[in-house]
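Handover notes (outgoing to incoming on-call)

Open items:
1. UPF0213 protein VNG_2274C: sequence verified, structure written out, both below. Nothing else pending on this one.
2. Nothing else urgent.
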Amino acid sequence: MHHVYVIECSDGTYYTGYTTDVQRRVAEHNAGDGAKYTRGRTPVTLRHTESFDSKSEAMRREYRIKQLSRAQKEALF
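UPF0213 protein VNG_2274C structure tokens:
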């Protein structure tokens, strides 16, 4: 399975990403091994996930979520 996730950083901002293992990826973010954006904003909290059968579907959804406003992202969860 392919997943898109939204995490909330310690400064209140949101980060959206793609992974095949959500729990591992969130742990990487919290360990400082995730995206550069989240490294100085730990701890992070998982707020939303969506699962897809194909990587291309997940990547399209990730892009769409990244285009949403903060309020629209919050409506997801």
